[in-house]
Every structure is written in structure tokens, then in C-alpha cells.
Amino acid sequence: MIKNFRQVCRFALYQSALKTNSFQNLSKRAFCYVKHHKTFNDNEEIYTHQLSAASQPDTIPTFRVIDLQGSVLAPQYENIPDEILNKIFDTMVQVEEIDTILNMTQRQGKISFYMPSFGEQATTVGVGAALEFEDLVFPQYREQGTIIYRGYTVRDMLNQCIGNIHDLGKGRQMPVHYGSKALNFVTVSSPLTTQVPQASGAGYGYRLRGENKVAATYFGEGAASEGDWHAALNFAATLSCQTLFLCRNNKYAISTPVVDQYRGDGIAGKSIGYGIKTYRVDGNDALAVYHTVKEARNYIVTNKAPAFIEFMTYRIGDHSTSDHSVMYRTEDEISSWKSTNNPITRLGLYLKKSGRRVFDEAKDKEVRAAIKKDIIAALKEANEQKLPAWNTLFEDVYDQLTPNLKEQKEELRQHLNEYGEHYNLQKFASN
Ligand SMILES: Cc1ncc(C[n+]2csc(CCOP(=O)(O)OP(=O)(O)O)c2C)c(N)n1
Fold first, then answer.
1. How are strands ordered across the β-sheet holding 136-138?
2. Which of 27, 33, 196, 397 would bridge with 232, disulfide CB 3.0–4.6 Å?
3. Which atom of ligand 1 is the closest one to the Cα of 248?
4. Quick check: 20 pLDDT over 60?
């Protein structure tokens, strides 16, 4: 049954094509406009008399500005202000130090879990530098570089990892599940890929409201195998969402290497399939990352359409403190990336060779030592704080407690009244 004018129009077109047997021509030219809505895509069908399977297009090239020795390959992309480039470098060093110490802190049993971002700092810090502050970031979990660039402090990180009263998440999440409304950084979610359709939705909202900002979402190449990822990209493409998809292709999803994750041309190849403006960049080259994100962001706000970037990088560290990665990859593989394609070394070499920064070894050591001292002090302070009061457990989900939650809260209160001595209730703030 024909329900509306658009369908009437499409039906008439179909009838006329049937009469004239002109379906071949229809595909390229026949658009049905109703209230400016286009019904068919351009160039959906091109006919041929040769029976053959479609061939794989050429490999998408990876954009690079500096080589592994920090020498410039594309001087036209050196034009990043000194202040920003130095902030990128300093933040990358800071993130590396924080990751080193918090990884050890977990080994000492002072925090329960940690996820380092060794080897991926150019991607996450470079993105932080290139996005606008008001762009909303939907992270996966290994993107501390972005939130730190925006101003999240070591104290914020440690309060979250310990889950004390200063933790913005009120101690309800595992460590590294950072988030900050003030810094436009949505809280990390453990279930993979949930953030990606959320970012499509936020980007859709920005377009509908005529806002000049983007929703930027991170995910690993492993997370791109989730069903939600495909739905998110298709929604973004068809609804013209102002969403920037940021794929950290670090070659492993815990123990699953890329060869078992996908065939075809990486994750960027899939994005092109969804009709999204797609870039591939050397994720260990901070200059290339910065320029690619700037260009993709500009494309989104100008064209009111999504964009996608695949960052080619390598996870130098273990997946998390619950992983021991030499069980599934060799020491040689790790050390070769660490020594020949380390993003911090590469940017440092570039800054030195180009004369844009004067390095002083003794001063650099002092800077790293100061970062370490600060983290240790912040850890001590965070540990001295109380944990959130037990009754806050029931807050923030429903505006008014549901009858079963009321019952559970009362049950817990009675339980703690009766058996409180068996718990270390001193650790918790009072209700
Ligand atoms: C829905 C879901 N499935 C499985 C997991 C367990 N898991 C956590 S991280 C991870 C690997 C993800 O790899 P990738 O997306 O490539 O990101 P990377 O860790 O390499 O940065 C898996 C399988 C999960 N958290 N959620």
C-alpha cells in the first residue's frame, strides 16, 4: 500500500521504468525529490558485460610527515605553532612517566588495575591538541593522553584509580575509567564499542541543532569487530552525523593479532565501504596526527558529515596489568617497535634536528623525576582520602528510588548496623 507522497513518486518512477525497460538508466539519474529528500544514491550501479568478481582496491596509503629518524618528509606540514608542539611533546613524556609509575603501583598492590598507553602517545596526545576543547570525546580506555592534554591532573587520575571521595565517578568504576564533564570527556565504559553509537547520536544532535562541534570517538581495531561499530558507522553516514571516528590500530586486541581480526584493507577500508570520508595516518608521527585530525574536523563541520581516521601504531606495553604479552608475541617484536618507531623518540629527534627545541639531558631527567615525585605524592594523598559513603551506591541512576532499591538500601543499612564490625567502615565517609 502506498502511504505517502514520496512512495507515490517512487512508484510512478518504477512504473515508467517498467514501461520503457530503462532500469539501466534509472540507476544513475533517477532521483526522486520530495521536500528536497533524495531517494537514490549516485552511481549505485554501473553495468558491464564481463563476469568477474570485484577486485580489492589499492591499499590506502598512510600519511606521514616525519620519518623514523625524525627527518622531515613533508615540510608543508611543519607549520604547527612551537607552543602547541612543545605542549604535545611534554604531555607525551608526562603520559609515559604516569603509565610507568601507575603500572608499578598496581604491581605493588596499591591500585587494583591499570592500562598503559606505551607507544600510542602521539595518537592520543596529538588528537587532544588538534580537537577543539568543546568537542565531546567518547573514549575506549587507552586515551589518557587526550584527557591529560585537556587538563585532567595526576590527582584526578589517582582519585579515580583509588575510587575515593574525590573521584568524579564516586568509586563505582574500575581504575582507568576516567571521565570529566568539565573537560568534555565522557566516562570510559568497559563493554567494548558502546561509546561508538553514542558518538554517532551526539554527532547527529550537533547537526540537527546547527552546532559547530564534533563528537569524537576512539576504538581499537578489535572493537571495530563488534556489531555496534557497524551500526554506528552506518547511522553516521546516512544521518550525516558530525562524528569523528578515531581507530587506534595498535595491531593487537589483547592476544588477538590483526591477522585474526580482519582481512581486507584494515579498518579504514571498512569505513570507505560505509561512504565515510576516510584517512589513514602514521599514529606514531605527532605532526601527521595533528594535521589529519585538524583536516578531518574541518571537513565534518564544513560538510555536516562524518569522518574517520585510522591511526597505524603499535601497543608496546601489555594490554593491561592482567596481561603478560610475551605469551603471544616475541620480546624482539616489542623491542624493535620500541627502539625504531617510538613516537616520543621520533618527535624528540624532529624537534632537535629542526632546532625548534633545545634539549638538555640533565634538565630532562629533572623533569621526569619531578613528574615521578608528584605522582607518588598524589598517590599518598589519594590513599589518605575516605571512600564514598555506602549509601551513595543507590544514587544517580533514578531520580527517585524504585521500591526494590529502597528495600535493598534498607536491608544494607540493617546489615551494616548488625555486622558493621566485620567491615572496615572507617574507610568510608559517613552517610
Ligand atoms: C563487549 C566486550 N567484549 C569483550 C571485552 C573484553 N575486552 C576488553 S579489551 C579487549 C580488546 C580490545 O582490543 P582493541 O579494541 O583492539 O583495543 P586495544 O586494547 O588494543 O587498545 C577485549 C576483548 C569487553 N570489554 N567488552
1. 136-138, 215-220, 243-249, 307-312, 277-282
2. 196
3. 21
4. no
Ligand 1 pocket check for 65: Cβ under 6 Å: no
Q: Is the CB–ligand 1 distance for residue 99 below 6 Å? A: no
Q: What's the CA-to-centroid distance between 190 and ligand 1, angstroms? A: 8
Q: Which three cell numbers stand for residue 214?
A: 564534533
How high does pLDDT run on average in the chain? 92
Give the atom of ligand 1 at the shortest distance from the alpha carbon of 120: 21
pLDDT classification of 249: cutoffs 50, 70, 90: very high
Residue with cell 584493507: 265
Q: Does the complex come out with an ipTM higher than 0.95?
A: yes
Using a pLDDT cut of 90, give the percent of the chain over it: 88
What is the pLDDT confidence band of residue 431, given thresholds at 50, 70 and 90? confident
Among 144, 254, 262, 323, the mutation site with the greatest number of ligand 1 atoms within 8 A of its Cβ is 254
Distance CA 275, CA 278 (A): 9
* pLDDT for 32 beyond 50: no
254: Cβ below 6 Å to ligand 1? yes
Ligand 1, atom 13: closest residue by C-alpha:
253
Q: Is the CB of 253 under 6 A from ligand 1?
A: yes
Between CA 178 and CA 182 the distance in angstroms is 12
Residue pair 119/315 in contact (Cβ under 8 Å)? The answer is yes
Options 2.30.180.10, 3.40.50.970, 3.10.290.10, 3.40.630.10; CATH of 75-383? 3.40.50.970
Distance CA(275)–CA(37), nearest Å, equals: 18
Please check the confidence at residue 21 and state whether its pLDDT lies above 70: no
Centroid of ligand 1 to alpha carbon of 218 (angstroms): 12
CA of 221 to the centre of ligand 1 (A): 9
Residue 221 Cα: closest atom of ligand 1: 16
Tell me what pLDDT residue 36 has: 53
- What does the domain layout of the chain look like in residue ranges? 1-46, 75-383, 390-427
- Distance of CA 416 from the midpoint of ligand 1 (Å): 37
Q: State the amino acid at position 55 in one-letter form.
A: S
Which of the pair, 395 or 44, is modelled with greater confidence?
395
Q: pLDDT tens digit string along 198-241?
A: 999 999 999 999 999 999 999 999 999 999 999 999 999 999 99
Question: Could you give the CA distance from residue 351 to residue 122 in angstroms, rounded to a whole number?
Answer: 14
Tell me which residue of 229, 313, 244 sits closest to 276, measured CA to CA.
244
